[in-house]
Amino acid sequence: MEIAAYQEMIAPLPCTAIAAILFRRYLLMALTSSLFWNMFGLGAAMDSKPNILLFLADDLGIGDIGCYGNNTIRTPNIDHLAREGVKLTQHIAAASLCTPSRAAFLTGRYPIRSGMASSNGYRALQWNAGSGGLPANETTFARLLQQQGYTTGLIGKWHQGVNCESFNDHCHHPLNHGFDYFYGMPFTLLNNCQENKPPELDVALQAKLWLYSQIIILAVLTLIAGKLTGLISIRWKIIACFTFVGGLFFISWYSSYGFVRYWNCILMRNHDVAEQPMTLERTASLMLKEAVSFIKRNRHGPFLLFVSFLHVHTPLFTTAKFLGKSHHGLYGDNVEEMDWMVGKILDSLEKQGLKNHTFTYFASDHGGHLEAQDGSAQLGGWNGIYKGGKGMGGWEGGIRVPGVFRWPGVLPAGTVIDEPTSLMDIYPTLVHLAGGTLPQDRVIDGRNLVPLLQGRAQKSEHKFLFHYCGSYLHAVRWHQKDSGAIWKAHYVTPVFHPPGAGACYGRGICPCFGEGVTHHDPPLLFDLSRDPSEAKPLSPDTEPLFDTVIRKMGRAIEEHRRTLTPVPEQLSVYNVVWKPWLQPCCGTFPFCWCDKEGDTTQSL
């Protein structure tokens, strides 16, 4: 309306009427302005779809960062993220090892539902050239966001498999699971990836294979010496045959375990191998460059960027800029480098003007690895007051992880939530934010966190959480909402070695079954609301509700098991063994060597 016409309209009116018109007009403008809604934290929610930035650390303990109580390792960027958003104190991984935990994170489902839970000793994928991995019929949050118009990218670690039947079918590859762009490591970091480090993959098995090979060599030499001296009457053909069989045995295992750095320690860009083996000295800078570039390319959004750090898994390769700078040796240096990378990516987001329109999340895939040591030096994380660590199916230290969210103007800053939540909750939360619909043909175990994060809900939707070690149920958590109690029953626990040590130092990682575990009947019962360290198990004498709680949990387990359906086991021994015909290779197998990031490509 023109100003003059407006003045003509209100001129004959009394002052009170003019004031009423002006008030109504001002109120209408305020209600329709983003400023009003942002005052109540709803502006961005009413706006278009937010960008989504996910950070997932590898093997980071909940006690390793400042906002969770660490005052010696410097993590200013993660701490700042927590101050500007919401911090969860009871954020639970669905598994205490990489492969199953990440499968649950991507699908919102317990890994046993997708076949990503193992019934044998191999609880994570062992090779890029294994045939197991996240099944093609599983629907990741990336796939659903892709359907909602998001550009989706994964930078960093995958560890969900690559191929099924040939070296280029890419059935388990990120691009087959909803990601438009992938740059990173299809596997996971290992000591084997760094020269002059002791091997980490199947160490006990390798030792046995070396022993058998040496016995065969000794036997062959003995036969030859006996034949030449006449002490042994044996035909040369038999010696030659025995030597041939022994040679085949050696080649059969050394062709895989002798070249782990070439087979597993590779970088891929989409379907192409970019580095084989990878050059660790520049990996962090390459990952950072790719993340920043993805944000810049897709600044007009909406985008999903999943930054899946290689930090802080052994061998803890850290660039010179951070070496020796922390108070906790190489591990602390590695954590501080990761935090710096988080800061740089967040700076990029802000430079593009996207901070207030981006839902940001930081977590770890599971707890710190207590058994990771080099002599007296601790190479694994610290899990704070919580018992246990990586690989332990039920103890809190293996599954309770950091959980930080930020979305300025939508999520209240400086909020702390103590309710039980799960990494599986990210799946329905992202689908909700993107305006999508959850799959109706399968069980989704995660719950939408938006009402809880915004303060519109005071209680978590989770009543029971089930804690698996491989495919074996070790513990159950019951959130008794009317009383505030958080009961946790352990049916199986690992046998620590040495006794009372709090970890399985003699094994490298705790087992899920067999002689290395203890079965409890009745189960060990704790109330985490009173005893978060799980230090004092309750008994019928000390807890009047003991029998009632155990019965309630027993019924919950029965109901949960009725929802499970048989699926192919992706981590079977057959699926995890190295298959040369599935090996990603940037040359002609077995001559796999390239450095495309250094603008050179060669073969051995």
Automatic annotation (TrEMBL):
Native species: Aquila chrysaetos chrysaetos
InterPro entries documented for this protein: Alkaline_phosphatase_core_sf, Sulfatase, Sulfatase_CS, Sulfatase_N
Residue ranges of coiled coil: none
Pfam hit, one: Sulfatase_C
Keyword Ribosomal protein among record annotations: no
Regions that span the bilayer: 26-46, 209-226, 238-260
Keyword terms, alphabetized: Calcium, Hydrolase, Membrane, Metal-binding, Transmembrane, Transmembrane helix
Essential cofactor(s): Ca(2+)
Protein name: Arylsulfatase H-like
Family: Belongs to the sulfatase family.
GO cellular component labels: endoplasmic reticulum; intracellular organelle lumen
Organismal lineage: Eukaryota, Metazoa, Chordata, Craniata, Vertebrata
Keyword Calcium among record annotations: yes
Matches recorded under PANTHER family: ARYLSULFATASE D, ARYLSULFATASE FAMILY MEMBER
GO function terms (MF aspect): arylsulfatase activity; metal ion binding
Sulfatase N-terminal domain sequence ranges: 50-435
